[in-house]
Amino acid sequence: MSQPVGLIKTADLPRFVETLSEYGTVCAPVERRPGEYVFSEIEKPGDVAWNYTNTLMPPKKYFFPPREKLLVFHGDGRVEENLDSTKRVLLGVRSCDLHALQRLDIVAGGEYPDPYYKARRENTLVVCLVCVEPCGDHSFCVSMGTNVPPPIYDLKMTPGDGGFVVEPGTEKGREVFESLTTILEDAAPPPEPSFAQERKIDREKVAHLLRNGFNSEVWEKYAERCLSCGACNINCPTCYCYELEDHIANTMDGGSRERAWDGCHFVDFSAVAGGGNFRARRRQRLQQWVNHKLWYFMERNGQHLCVGCGRCVRDCPAGIAIDEIVRDLGGGSV
Amino acid sequence: MSGKNRCEKEGENAFLPFEAVIKDVRDINRRGDTKLFTLAVPDGVAEKIGGEFCYRPGQFVEVSVFGFEEAPISIASSPHPSLMEKNTFEMCIRSVGSLTAEVHRKKPGDTLQIRGPYGRCFPLLEHAGRDLLFVAGGIGLAPIRGVIKEAVEVEEIRQRFGKIHVLYGARTPSDMVFVEDLERWKKMDASVLTTVDRAESGWDGNVGVVGSLLDRIDLDVKNTVAYVSGPPIMLRFVIKDLCKMGVPENQIITTLERRMRCGIGKCGHCMMGPVYTCMDGPVFTYAEIKNIPEAL
User: Fold this and answer.
1) Is A334 near chain B, with CB under 8 Å?
2) Pair B239, A211: CB distance under 8 Å
3) Any idea what DSSP says for residue A296?
4) Which residues have C-beta within 8 Å of that of residue A14, sequence separation ≥ 6?
5) Domain locations in chain B as residue ranges
6) ipTM above 0.95, yes or no
7) How far is B213 from chain A (nearest CA, A)?
8) Nearest CA to CA, how far is A140 from chain B (Å)?
9) Mean pLDDT calculated for residue range B205-227
10) Which of residues 2-31 of A touch B (CB under 8 A)?
11) What's the pLDDT tens digit per position in A29-64?
12) Contact, A114 vs A289, CB < 8 A?
């Protein structure tokens, strides 16, 4: 049986978005300032930026919000779990961010599944928007093998002549695809995207380079410039570390246990009770970030945690680029 | 090494703690900043976590008081029926921050929120037939106290091992924890040596770091399994000495302290290289961590 596939004509995009909105609240890339895009709940189909370059922040916030209440505790001892079952459509997820989602699925799964992440994931319809050209000079997804979407999308849209070619990827996506038949026209499956990029990391060799370069002087050079600001933690689509915090309500009769994004660049990230700190030095923290992205996660899970989106390269106030560190460690070669 | 114990029922929210009742609280050093808490998991709660609160020495729990956050605390007891009542466990807690200060204000009958137990336990019985050496510094005696109690105090386990040595060091005599246990083990079939970094009046024992006690005992190094627990600096020196003496790297067992915030391999704080201290440890052999960045 051939895979279902259909064409949405550009003129039918509003109807397409309206049909999707029957599943849940539609969140999509929206142009906030000229050339700057954010994932946001849309007010009308026309808000969707169909040809956007990568958003300031990744869409991971819809599964793992910057801050969320896990438990609400009351003065009388009752404790409630605060699971989010909002139905959402996450429209226009780029391949890199979809790869990131697949990495986050690994982290949230395992022996102790994360019920908060899982609830959001199950209640969200993920619609991938395939890239057919590079989004800027900061990204290096081609070299990371992440420019082609992983097969975890519910629906996939590929820009083509006169509109977008739509294909379902999951059972959930297939059901929504069925509801689209009245606006879909016949189409052939699109070819896999292929484009070239300047920046690259040799994903086969990088873990080895980082292992060998653990004591390299190269790190000092970058650590001197690094501000430990954590911008590359906060805008990374795969950074998943968090802190757990308790908050007491102003009424003093209860409160909440919350989790908030944390980052390995922050000085107290590895501090323990009594004053010990296992990564007190800036270099150690920079190295932890890079090594986790391109060595440790691979060793543990068989995949790199870096998906080559290049947000860290784009936004580092000190001009540090992860691919340049790797190149330096390799003695100048890629 | 093997040995994991899990209580959680599948599908349970791993972030949701259960309530345990404090049965007993007592000072565990002369300074008065460290207390031993005995906790009981109520039957109703035990039902929900698989019928029994199962744990092994070496594992830890996340302890919390709502409003004061959580901290990983190692279990200081052994669940052996001759040592502890069913569904009870002990934790040794020093008051160093807002949570631990709040825990210290609790009295018998009060409750604490608990998640766990988490992590890998000590592989005591895997080494039956060997001699045992326990080296602890400061409050580092707490995580290995359960396994020492099993080895020294439980007759059918004691019979399965050769010589047992316990070496313990603290900053001052007032900082020594579990002095009663040390005295009891001395009277049982174990050799116990203690030392302090700084003597106080009335102390006529050894003065010096705990590693210096290694010179005072006669070890059959190839046949010895060494448990080392304490602050990072002490771990480094003692492990180095043990290696130099010839104790095999896979027979040196330690337990590492890290910021194990979630305990379930998610929050990232306790990572050392590709390893999660909370899930893959906190118990490791030296052979396992020797090549892990930042482990020691």
Assistant:
1) no
2) no
3) I
4) A45, A46
5) 18-118, 124-289
6) no
7) 25
8) 24
9) 96
10) none
11) 999 999 999 999 999 999 999 999 999 999 999 999
12) no
What is the chain A residue with the closest CA to B119?
A111
Minimum Cα–Cα distance from A261: chain B residue:
B267
Q: How many residues does chain A have?
A: 334
Contact A244 B69 (CB under 8 A): yes
Candidates B269, B279, B294; nearest CB to A269: B269
* C-alpha pair distances (Å), B97 with each of A321, B27, B138, B151: 38, 17, 18, 33
Token pair in block for residue A198 = 């300047």
Q: Which of A79, A299, A300 is facing B16, going by the closest CB pair?
A: A79
The residues of B whose Cβ lies within 8 A of any Cβ of A are 6, 8, 13-17, 64, 66-71, 94, 96-97, 100, 231-232, 257-259, 261-262, 264-269, 271-274, 279, 293-294
Question: What distance in Å separates the CA atoms of residue B121 and residue B46, rounded to the nearest whole number?
Answer: 20
Percent of chain A with pLDDT over 70: 99
A264 interfaces chain B, CB cutoff of 8 Å: yes
A-chain CB neighbours of B6 within 8 Å are: 111
Minimal C-alpha gap between A306 and chain B (Å): 15
Using the beta-carbon criterion (under 8 Å), do B14 and A112 form an inter-chain contact? yes
- The residue that leads in pLDDT, A334 or A15, is A15
> Who's near B59: CB < 8 A, 6+ residues apart?
B5, B74, B75, B116, B117, B118, B119, B120, B121
DSSP B81: T
Predicted confidence (pLDDT) at residue A225 exceeds the cutoff of 70: yes
pLDDT of A1 reads 47
Q: Which of A244, A245, A273 sits opposite B97 (nearest CB)?
A: A273
What is the predicted pLDDT for the residue at B293?
87
Residue A334 has pLDDT above 60, yes or no: no
- Residue range A124-140: average pLDDT? 95
Through-space distance between the first and last CA atoms of chain B, rounded to whole angstroms: 19
* A154 contacts chain B (CB < 8 A): no
Chain B residue numbers with beta carbons less than 8 Å from the beta carbon of A288 are: 271
Instruction: Out of 3.40.50.80, 1.20.1250.20, 3.40.50.620, 3.30.70.580, select the CATH number for domain B124-289.
Output: 3.40.50.80
- What is the residue extent of each domain of chain A? 6-183, 206-329
Q: What is the pLDDT of residue A3?
A: 79
- CATH 2.40.30.10 corresponds to the domain B18-118: yes
Please tell me if residue A243 touches chain B, with a CB cutoff of 8 Å.
Answer: yes
Residues of B282-294 as b/e, b for ≥16 C-beta within 10 angstroms? bbbbbebbeebbb
Determine the distance from the C-alpha atom of residue A329 to the mean position of all C-alpha atoms in its chain, rounded to a whole number.
Answer: 26
What B125-130 contacts at long range (C-beta under 8 Å, 24+ apart), as own/partner pairs, is B125/B157, B125/B160, B126/B1, B126/B2, B126/B3, B127/B161, B127/B225, B127/B251, B128/B160, B128/B161, B129/B160, B129/B161, B129/B162, B130/B161, B130/B162, B130/B223, B130/B224, B130/B225, B130/B251
Tokens standing for residue B266:
């998610």
Count other Cβ atoms within 10 Å, centred on residue A78. Answer: 9
Across the interface, do A115 and B257 touch by the CB < 8 Å criterion? Answer: no
Question: How do residues B222-251 score in pLDDT, each as one tens digit?
Answer: 999 999 999 999 999 999 999 999 999 999
Residue appearing with tokens 């009060």: B110
Nearest C-alpha in A relative to B116: A112
